[in-house]
Amino acid sequence: MRFLVALGIIFGALVLSPILMEPLDADEADSSSRRIVAVIEVSGLIDPIEISYIESQLEQAQSKGALAIVLQINSPGSTVGETRLKKLLENLENSSIPVGVWIGQSGATAQGGSAHIVSVADFSGIAPGSKIGRYSEVENSLLSVTAELRNRRWKGEEAVDFGLVNVVSPTLGEFLLALEDEKIIPKISVEIERADGLIQRGIADDVSIAFNKLSLIDQLFHTVASPAVAYLLLLIGLSLILLDFFTGGIGVAGGVGAVSLMLSSYGLGILDIRIWALIALVVSMFGFAVDLQTGVPRFWTFAGSFLLVIGSLFLFGAHTTSWVPLVCGIGLTVFFILSGMPALIRTRYGTSTLGREWMIGEMGVAVTDITPDGIIRFRDAQWRARVNRLTPIDRGETARIVGIEGVILEVEPEEGAAVDYREMRKSDEP
Question: Of 93, 341, 372, 411, which has the most beta carbons under 10 Å away?
């Protein structure tokens, strides 16, 4: 109860803090005497959250009479439909204030839907080493997408020569000054004399550059909607829920797994995925679950591993992810299933609170020769079993469960067990 109260207080503070702190914002209080250039950072795939944020910031900038709004783009594409993307392009094109787009910093990219945003800007720039291209098909777009635009990317000066951007600007500051030089915005610069006597341009004191980013909550969901994060959260969620399924009751692992699955579901719902590949990933966990009951990697372990690899490689359609999350996801999942999970299960089964004592004394049938390790069938489920070396059990014989160690059942023959011999020796003693 105390935890819930504390959580409520923290949540309320997070919600109310922006409102309570608003009068203390010096820039806001002094906005009437300053000229504003709004800069919005657009990174990652352009999803509904990012588009809504861009549109809200554009509306605020227009209402405040900002000199311009500048989008700093580093995006490999978009996840929204053509209709939603066209609406954003129309809002930017019909803006009452100038719209600038800078692809930066060096190494940034604008491709797919984000490349179309550059095409509707009043003025655009690109940092050296940044790229633009691989345009997506957008009906009735200002830009006619040719095969070359669809398949190629241009870097720096190449993009300027091809007419995709207006200027090469190494820094955002230089791009803002280029807006002034092209008469896109009024004069915002002043000449500053450096200590070495050289004169350089800088931003005037009465100009405020307002940098804007997504809020923490929006950034969380925006990050989740990236292929690598959504994929890894999916595997984490499935693995942890599988762990809790075998360890009796819902614990911390199950809670974390459930949260991971919910976040991944949001991301996968936005991204372009292949449903059959997602089903393959889920079914792979059932394959692992079959052999986890025995503690021995057999056919279903290899089948699960195969489905895990295939599902991982073909999960995403239009969106791509690097080999790093794929290798990490596949490798760590298999390692956890084969090594880590049995150890965790053994640890929890070693406690007295699991309620498995009822199995002791029950009878099973040997599926393989147990000499001293093997497999028995108990109530239509196969378990890994171990017997005393002195009393091996042949395939098809009945075995009695005498103990449980982790996921391994300690068994003995129905008759002639080592325990029986010890009892017999005790009875023969005077």
Answer: 411
